[in-house]
Design brief:
With about 270 residues, the protein is an alpha/beta fold. It has two domains: about 10-140, Rossmann fold; about 150-270, Rossmann fold, CATH 3.40.50.1980. The protein is built from twelve helices and twelve strands. Helix 2 (about 30-40) crosses helix 5 (about 115-125) and helix 6 runs parallel beside helix 12.
């Protein structure tokens, strides 16, 4: 980085420290943006990631990709905080902290992380009461889903990517979401987050349903209509369920509704 540009950045940093009178947040995660909107804090958002699509934040400027800050834009926006539940290794995080911006990385591996994140954001934005209301609503919705858990679950394969079938294990919130919906994740015994599953493992597990998470069902079908998979129960019966990644693959206020919708589909199959 050129000396003049570095001096310019440092001058901006000084102005941030002096001029910031209230919290200004750049959210680099759709889940974080969703949570901020859920507690009525959209007015504190000065920037968002390109992946954030909450309707309330549609007019908020883009300041990076998911978990990856755009330095020049962030310097221009002068936030007090950058908040995300994903931290891209390519981000210049130390520089941001040098500029006096507080970097907050929230957890995002468990469904219950959302309730805790609401509380943390409530403290940052001084919206504790609204955060507690949102927490209670979310926890009640999750409790209702748990009370409807079926006695017999449907064996499912969660597909997040092909070719080379990418799925998830028990340390992923998507595994929890599918379980709440009445599915038995065939990779649920694995103490992993996201990984590639071998064809041999899939054939042995014999999933009854294939859940296409963030992928078009037609794309996944094309992969599984190959000869070696044709005798799988899910393939023979054409049971490919496409779930909306914006609702199902993010820890946020939309997740309970997405779980309930999947539960209805699986209940019809059971």
């Amino acid at each position: 980085m050129a000396v003049k540009k570095l001096l310019f950045i440092l001058c901006i940093a000084t102005s941030i420290a002096i001029c910031a009178k209230e919290v200004k947040v750049v959210s680099l995660s759709p889940g974080v943006t969703d949570a901020i909107c859920a507690i009525g804090g959209v007015e504190y958002l000065c920037g968002r990631s390109s992946a954030c699509n909450a309707p309330e934040a549609a007019k908020v400027p883009v300041a990076g990709k998911m978990g990856l800050p755009a330095m020049e834009k962030i310097i221009q926006l002068r936030p007090t905080h950058i908040i995300s539940d994903t931290k891209h290794p390519g981000g210049n995080w130390k520089m941001l902290e040098t500029l006096g911006i507080k970097v907050v990385i929230l957890p995002g591996k468990r469904v219950n992380d959302y309730a805790e994140n609401l509380r943390k954001l409530g403290k940052i934005l001084k919206l504790e009461a609204a955060a507690e209301v949102a927490v209670k609503k979310f926890e009640n919705e999750i409790s209702a889903l748990k009370s409807k858990a079926p006695a017999k679950a449907v064996k499912v394969l969660i597909v997040l990517g092909v070719p080379g079938v990418i799925s998830c294990g028990r340390t992923s919130f998507i595994h929890e979401a599918v379980t709440l919906a009445g599915g038995e994740n065939i990779c649920g015994t694995m103490e992993k987050g996201y990984f590639t599953v071998s064809a041999e493992y899939i054939l042995k597990a014999e999933p009854e349903v294939i859940i296409c998470a963030g992928l078009a069902a037609e794309v996944v079908k094309k992969h599984f209509f190959r000869r070696e998979y044709r005798n799988l129960p899910a393939v023979k019966h054409g049971r490919f369920i496409e779930v909306d990644a914006d609702n199902f693959c993010r820890i946020g206020s939309r997740l309970p509704g997405a779980i309930a919708a999947l539960n209805k589909i699986l209940s019809a199959i059971r």
